[in-house]
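Table S2 (text version). Query chain:
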Amino acid sequence: MWREGKHFLLLSHENGEPFNPDSMKNWWERFLRRHKLRYVNIHALHHTMVTILIELSIPLSQISKRAGHSGISITNDTYSHHVQTVDELATERLSEVLNRKIINQDKPSKTNEKQAPAVKMSAK
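Corresponding structure-token output:
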């Protein structure tokens, strides 16, 4: 951590001091022009970071700290649609794994036993 742990910033001066918000905005706009990139509000990088971390299944408590939110509920409330999408994906994957195991375990034997019905998981 820079400056004796005082700041934990994604973007800062080399000594760890925070940028002046206006100079950061100006720097960002010059950077975009120099590299011929379309304009994106610099705060969008914050949202992009949080969204990517959610999709990587990083715990919300860690994401909340990194985002500088005062609590996990802010992260969850602000990004709940992304959290829900990832939760639905997790449910689908879990169902796939469980169904694969049930199907492999319960393959009909020589005695023609019936196959167990597939398991359907719910995110709610």
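Notes on Table S2: The CA atoms of residues 15 and 54 lie 30 Å apart. The radius of gyration is 23 Å.
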